Amino acid sequence: MRIAIDAMGGDEAPKVVVEGVLIAAEAFPDTTMVMYGDEKQIKQYLTKELSNIEIVHTDEKIESDDNPVRAVRRKKEASMVLAAHSVKNGENDALFSAGNTGALLAAGTLIVGRIRGVDRPALMATMMTTNPEREKMLVLDLGANADTKPENLNQYATLGSYYAEYVHQIKNPTTALLNNGTEDNKGNQVTKEAFNLLKENESIDFIGNREARDMFAGVADVLVMDGFTGNAVLKTMEGTALTIVQMLADSIKNSGPKGKLGGLLLKDNLKDIKDSMDFSKFGGAILFGVQSPVMKTHGATNAEAVYHTLKQTRDILKSKVIADVVEHFESTR
Q: What pTM does this model have?
């Protein structure tokens, strides 16, 4: 297995990317990590020589504020673009970047290419839950498509169910539709029509509408929503988690000697809560519905998150889920 890595993407690239690649390369000697970017900068942080790490040099990169589609089309020697073409050409099996999200979505769709029969690939991530029987849940679309048709939501459900079965190893995974109520007739025109399509979709186990307030309870194995809602939900969750941790820290600091002593005693418990809100342990997000895995992690990533996303990428490749998705959608055309 070979993973093409945009080493220049992300707030602290290439430093944290190279550090994460080193961890993954040591953990998975059967997987070759191919880093695209400035060789001199990459080698500055490459503290070990490993046989399964390769570097493809380029001076060009896509900046965080670049126009996504224009950058992909015009910056033909950019690290992300070269890495995407290597996957398209079959030189590598998957693409990873912590860089410009819009550009990565464009590279995945325009260069790697959609699976025939999938109208719009979706950005999908794994989130933790408080349900001991379902500790993780797939959520899609998280922002690949702001405007979504009922047919797209129906396809997202099929994509998510395949991933849950093949990668998460869940037999007969359940799927729910995020809505503003649990009743069958709730929602706008799009979700109402999507509900009817999902009920008739024989490829999934559809359990109906679910509300956003119940997301952490692990309401289903797969939760489907439009990209505009999904992106807003994701950022709200991230902001809420950071706010709660900060409020707790401020409360302890300003509560006097007794409060500080209590905070000291609860330090490990508070760390456990913070760690449980860390999505990076499940890896990054995948642009699902394209011909090969296209993986994204947060721009403000760290080496551990890079490692977990590369591990997730390897698991996806081992599962052969893309091949099964291709077969399903091409057979239903």
A: 0.86
State the pLDDT at residue 282.
67
Between 90 and 331, the more confident residue is 90
Average pLDDT over residues 136-160: 92
3-class secondary structure per residue, the chain: CEEEEECCCCCCCCHHHHHHHHHHHHHCCCCEEEEEECHHHHHHHCCCCCCCEEEEECCECCCCCCCHHHHHHHCCCEHHHHHHHHHHCCCCCEEEECCCHHHHHHHHHHHHHECCCCCCCEEEEEEEEEECCEEEEEEECCCCCCCCCHHHHHHHHHHHHHHHHHCCCCCCCEEEEECCCCCCCCCCHHHHHHHHHHHHCCCCEEEEEECHHHHHHCCCCEEECCHHHHHHHHHHHHHHHHHHHHHHHHHHHCCHHHHHHHHHHCHHHHHHHHHHCCHHHHCCEEEECECCCEEECCCCCCHHHHHHHHHHHHHHHHHCHHHHHHHHHHHCC
pLDDT band at residue 257 under the 50/70/90 scheme: confident
Which strands sit side by side in the sheet containing 32-37, from one edge to the other? 53-57, 32-37, 2-6, 94-97, 294-296, 285-288, 122-131, 134-140, 222-224, 174-178, 205-210
Q: What confidence category does residue 172 fall into, taking pLDDT thresholds of 50, 70 and 90?
A: very high
- pLDDT tens digits for range 155-165: 999 999 999 99
Enter the tokens of residue 156.
């997202």
CA distance 301 to 17: 8
